[in-house]
Amino acid sequence: MSLLIQQLLNGLSTGAIYALIGLGFVLIFGVARVFNGAQGPIVIVGFYLASVVAGLSGGNFWLALLAATAIGAVFGLLLERLAIAPLASKGGGLLVPFLTTLGFGMVLEGIVRTIFSSSPQPFFVEFASESFKIGDVRLGQAQLFVTVFTILLLVALDRMIYSTSWGLSARAVAENASIAGGVGISPVALRIGIVALASALAGTTGALYGLQYAAATPTLGVVLTIKGLLVAVIAGLTSFRGAVLIGLLLGVTEAMVIAFAPAMPADGFAFVILVALLLFKPAGIFGRKLSGTAVGADDR
Amino acid sequence: MKNRFGRLASTIAVGAIVALGAGACASPGETPPSSSDDGPIYLAGISGVSGVAATYGEQTRAGEAIALAQINDAGGINGRQVQIDHEDSRFDIPTNVALFKRFAADSKYVAVLGPADGSGGIATTPFANEAGLVSIVAGGSAPWTVPFGDFVFRLPPQNKEIIAKTVKAAVDAWGIKSAAIIYASDADYAVAAKDLYEAVAADLGIEIKRVESFESTQQNFAPQLTNIAAANVDAVLMSVVAANAGPMLLQAQNLGLEDMHWVGDAGAQNASLWELSQGNAQGLITGTPFDVTSKNPEVVEFVEAFQAKHGTQPTIFNAYGYDSVRLLGQAIAAIDGEITRESVRDALAGITYEGVTGTISFPDGSGNAAREGIFVLVMDNGKFIPF
Description:
Radius of gyration of chain A: 19 Å
Shape of chain A: globular
Strand content of chain A: under 5%
Mean pLDDT of chain B: 86
Radius of gyration of chain B: 22 Å
Structural class of chain B: alpha/beta
Largest sheet of chain A: 2 strands, antiparallel
Distance between the termini of chain A: 60 Å
Strand content of chain B: 15-25%
Low-confidence stretches of chain A: 294-300
Structural class of chain A: mainly alpha
Shape of chain B: elongated
Oligomer: heterodimer
Mean pLDDT of chain A: 86
Strand order of the largest sheet of chain B: 7-6-8-9-10-15-16
Helix content of chain B: 40-55%
Number of strands of chain B: 16
Low-confidence stretches of chain B: 1-34
């Protein structure tokens, strides 16, 4: 039983990271109808800056977290202006903006590699290497921190989306940008804000990733993009709570596959299970039919 | 304006197709390779400095650069400077093949340093032999699955020798009776190493209680380490490079594996392991042909030069890169007459080279290097020292 609980905790802490990345996809797709190919690389930018700040500040994780979040927001603004906005009024479908954001991400990866090299970058924060025991279950402090912090962050974001007028506007745009625009909501301003928010979240995720796993390489961004994209797709693309749940489920499924079916490739097997669910819910488990109206489609 | 860009794009596309086509069609007879004038001796370099395993390509190149600087600073080879033109293979097989064909089509190149990885080397082997162009493969310890032919030379020792000696050292020192294995399932050398660990463990009477794998893009090893902790073993036998091993050892500490014995293969020999594991790599042992602490003058010269430039101990991949250039340099220097692809091959076939990774020769005239000397090192406060 303790092995099961331990693996469940392992899966939840990994799933928390997946949930944050998947959520970034859902936020941006919701208001802009863009699959953000740069979500993973922005996580990596956040990780690298956090690792530098942690190093310079003697392991001050809060400062590192703040810096990573801020750089994420800055790159989010750049991403929106350079890779999303120019296409918003041109009706490039889903593929073209995905490619431009993917290209933006590749540029970020190249910059990170040029500055830091391709070698793994360590992330050093003193309390990350401490752990404690409850019965037979071992818990790393970093693991616990990441899980709890992510849950609190997600609750705060949930409140923001579902209990504020800004969140209401965002949901209105996600529902139908044209109608939202007609009632005085500025879809473009909202899009800028949401992309910056999702990217800030990616920066935060980078710092949390560093705390939990202690190292990363520039190329990791691609892997995280794929994971986040799949979480978002399986969740149904616009479901905030769905992305959180699927992210956590993916993490736990991977851990359970490793625990009880070690011969299986955990990544692939976990996805097979989740994708199989799409056979029964083709629009995503929490998805519904989209209006198809992207932000900016009426800006021309 | 649009038309101008369109024409430019078309020109580039046509040029690329022609260049690739030329590469594909090249043969030794059509483009007689030679480097016989008084200008530089041109070598091609193929290694991945982007993609999933970029760090190893970078390390190989860093080692090559030290050797190249030494050769050129000393006046070059028989008065001629040496130039290495590098391209990034991205550790991708089609790119390796395309680059090799491109270099093969250019007669100024007398040898290729690379591909730096085994998979790329296997893929380009037929083209090296077809073009009559030497390929020196500095990395990759997995079994070679195609005939080497006359033009492919591989430097690393067989992983079998490394693993057998390292596990034996662990048994002798710690009396281990049970173990778990962990390896990267997406790396050919690591999959081969897993099989070797199992075979060696059977020979030595070690019970393998758990076999765990992961994908090398991952840095989350908690599920695998939880399984290993539950298996209650004496040691973990790992085929894991430092990039993954560092975070793995840190996470192991958090999961109650503080007193575990860790046994690695050559991929773990990287001083950055200490930093990446945040000091939790203490006591890890690894087998390697490169004893970074050796008093051998060749090794001392290399280590000092490397530390002066990079400030850290060189890794095994740095050492392989260094040896590949010095080996090739020695072979070319021994050529009496015109430096051609053929004469470079012949010189390599008969060489005995005293390198930093041991004595290298090719008793079969090409293929796997014959090697002597595998060392078992232990991580001690950030440095590898003899075990």
